Amino acid sequence: MQSQPVKRVVAGALTATAVITAVCVGAPASAVTLTSVPALQAPPTNSADALAQYRAAAAQAEQLNEEALRAQEDFNAKQADVAKANADIAGLTQQVQTAQAQAAQFQTVVDKFADASFVSGAQYTKLSALLSGTSAQDFLDRSSALAVLANDKNKALAQYTGAVQAAATAQQQATDARNRAQAASDAAQQTLNDLHARQDALNKQVNDLKQISGRLTAAEKALQQDKGGAAPNVPAPTAAAQQAIDVALSKLGDPYVWGATGPDQFDCSGLMVYSYGKAGVSLPRTAASQQSAGVAVPLSAIQPGDLLFEGSPAYHVVMYLGDGKVVQAPTSGDVVKVSAVPNNVVNARRVAT
């Protein structure tokens, strides 16, 4: 007969899956795409299986944690889009005002030419200069003056036309910026809603993990503290990669904590951020984002320091050490350790060249 805690765990895992599925179906194309989280298998009947059950549930929680971190990254990016659009609006509004002021200034000059030509009856033509002149030199003098006036008139008209066009262009750009700001704000709100759903699912899974943890014996809990033995003595191809490996190995035994990036507790991607950060290499925060960092490496050609990923988008990342070994922060209840390369690795990236 199943115990009540185990039933709740199974129900919790199914609920978490349902929440994520609902978010995936309803999310816009620009939103973060969630990977599916499989439901837990039938509950174990003995203590040894309880540890396996805990590790399976913890792995699901780790995946939910990575999804929540990715949603937070996406939300932050969209908030940056909103800020950029609002800054554009402010600058373009100033451009509109400046252009409109210039147009008004140039229109005054253009109006003066119009008044002189059409209101006062003056005729700025060479024919009028010839007919009204008293000598050839007078004609030449008046023609030269007319040329200057015509040039000034054309310049004023060009300035006025340019200012009007600049005002119209700036006005359109300001309108576009307002539309971008609204679209970015709406997208950020949708992502925030998705983030809350992921966090709720993670919190539910964490509560279920606590229930399973209560069924583990002291010996089983001790097994989770195993550091995995000595790391292989295989030098990395670059100084940065070697330093990142050395930093990660110096953290063996530190606990896995969701969302942690050090210095004494980590999640899987947080360990990579911390280790490579100490080596002077900046990495994105999540496993999925790190999956695009550096350069792609065939799995047949991986070297110490390369990052290996499970899932696409990734929900877990480890650092290769050589000889089929990795260093990783596995999952909740566990510690940073040396272990074999996971079975589900799908690709690798080299972030220190």
Give an overview in words.
The chain contains eight helices and six strands, in the order ααααααααββββββ. The model is unreliable at 1-47 and 118-124 (pLDDT under 50). The longest helix has 78 residues, at 136-213. The chain has two domains: 1-223, Orthogonal Bundle (Helix Hairpins); 228-350, Alpha-Beta Complex (endopeptidase fold (from Nostoc punctiforme)), CATH 3.90.1720. By secondary structure, the chain is α+β, with helices and mostly antiparallel strands. Helix 1 runs antiparallel to helix 4. The radius of gyration is 35 Å and the shape is elongated. It has a six-stranded antiparallel sheet. It is 60% helix and 8% strand. It has helices at 4-26, 47-119, 126-132, 136-213, 218-223, 239-249, 268-278, 287-290, and strands at residues 295-297, 307-310, 316-322, 325-328, 337-340, 345-350. Residues 238-353 form the NlpC/P60 domain. Residues 1-31 form the signal peptide. Keywords: Coiled coil, Hydrolase, Protease, Signal, Thiol protease.
